[in-house]
Each structure stands twice: as C-alpha cells, then as structure tokens.
UniProtKB/TrEMBL annotation:
SUPFAM superfamilies: C-terminal effector domain of the bipartite response regulators (SSF46894)
Cellular component GO terms, alphabetical: cytosol; protein-DNA complex
Biological process, per Gene Ontology: regulation of DNA-templated transcription
Protein source organism: Limosilactobacillus coleohominis 101-4-CHN
Name under which the protein is recorded: Transcriptional regulatory protein, C-terminal domain protein
C-alpha cells in the first residue's frame, strides 16, 4: 500500500531519536511523499542517521512560516511529478541531443519528468537523490568537493554534514551502478570529492 501524503516528524528535541528513525524507516516505503523532520540542532551524526532513514529534508527550528510553506509546496510538487504515470521509452529512443534528456552509460535521465531508467526499468529516486544526480550530470567529468555538492544541491552550507553527500552518493550507487562497490560512473576522487563519468 502506497500513501500519497506528506509526513512530518515533530521537534526532535522532544522525542526519542531512535523511535523517530525507526518510524521513518517503517513508513518510507509506504509514503510516496516527502518526509520532513524538524529539529533545533543538526549535527553530522543526526543528519547522517536521518538521511540514511531516507528523510527528504531537515527543517531547522525556529523556522519562518512562509518559507516552510513554500518549501513544503515545492517538495509536494516534486513528488506529484514523480507519481504521474510514466511511459518507459525504449533505450534507443533517448539521445544526448534531445533537450531535457541525458544519458550516462545505461542510465537515461528525463529531467522534465524526474525520471531515471536503466535497461528500460524505472529507478525510484528521492527528490534529493535526483537533484544530486542532475548536479553531477550537469558538471560531468569535473571533480566536485562535498562542499560544492552541498551548496549546489541543498543550496546552503551545512556545518559538519558533508556525510550527507556520502550517504546520498551511496544510495545513488546502490540504485544505479551494476556493482555499487566498484562503481563505473559515480567515482570517488580520494581527498577531493566525487565525479561523474
């Protein structure tokens, strides 16, 4: 059963973190909508645990109402695009020259419809995973530091949370690479960051 809805966690300073992580992990496969967690502080360890549980976004308290509403609407819009019926196009129909379509090896990326396929099969990515993939695609061949990726995808500096990038790269490798332990396209450049080839 898939629930097309929005899920919000409470203020993490008032609830048990392990309970929240367990709850998010249980509902993630059933909720085809953004999961956003609110907290007063965000440490590297907390961010890592939340993103490993596949939380879409962390809202730092106090927040501004209008900004939160806009952020929530944007997340819902992205998910609504992901849940629209898709027609899987045969691999040879994709071209590097078609506007809005990119190809990386066996991956076909439809930017306009937030769709990624591999060998003709749709790959389910979270909005952040898709944004990270597109940032890498748009900077293909360049070595990008974790800070560059955080700024480019999340749009702001996250102190001590470069592990967020590592976690999301790991998720992308698990979903897209044939062998996530020996990636062909999502490469680690030791001491510098990542690059897509």
């Amino acid at each position: 059963m898939v629930i097309n809805t929005m899920a919000f966690g409470g203020d993490l300073t008032n609830v048990n973190l392990d309970t929240t992580i367990a709850t998010v992990t249980l509902i993630r496969d059933q909720v085809m909508g953004p999961i956003m967690i609110m907290t007063r502080t965000l440490t590297d360890c907390l961010a890592q645990k939340l993103y490993q549980a596949r939380v879409d976004d962390v809202v730092l308290l106090p927040f501004y109402g209008a900004a939160l509403i806009a952020q929530t609407k944007q997340r819902l819009w992205v998910y609504s695009r992901l849940t629209q019926p898709k027609v899987v196009t045969r691999e040879h129909d994709y071209s590097l020259h078609v506007e809005g379509h990119q190809r990386v090896g066996e991956w076909q990326i439809d930017e306009k419809n937030y769709l990624v396929t591999k060998h003709g099969q749709q790959i389910q990515l979270t909005p952040k995973e898709f944004q990270l993939l597109m940032y890498l695609v748009n900077n293909r061949g360049q070595v990008l530091s974790r800070d560059q990726l955080v700024n480019g995808v999340w749009g702001y500096d996250l102190l001590e949370t470069s592990r967020i990038v590592d976690i999301h790269i790991s998720h992308l490798r698990d979903k897209l690479e044939d062998d996530s332990q020996h990636p062909v396209h999502l490469l680690t450049v030791r001491g510098f960051g990542y690059k897509l080839v």
